[in-house]
Amino acid sequence: MLKKLGFFIFAMAMGSGFAFAANEDCASECFDFYQACLDNGWPKPPTCLRNYKQCMAYCNAN
Prior knowledge:
Elements: H1 2-20, H2 26-40, H3 45-61
Signal peptide: 1-21
Keywords: Signal
């Protein structure tokens, strides 16, 4: 149960990261969230990299 709650909180944080990335310095915001993900230590680094790539794709689309 606690693991599911932790993942939910992480997913909500990443979702808000995409919303913050809508401003002019989108790439730097994505990198900041990537660093925060790595510093968190809970998710695996491939998860952080996947989210970073999705954020960058979102930036490039806008």
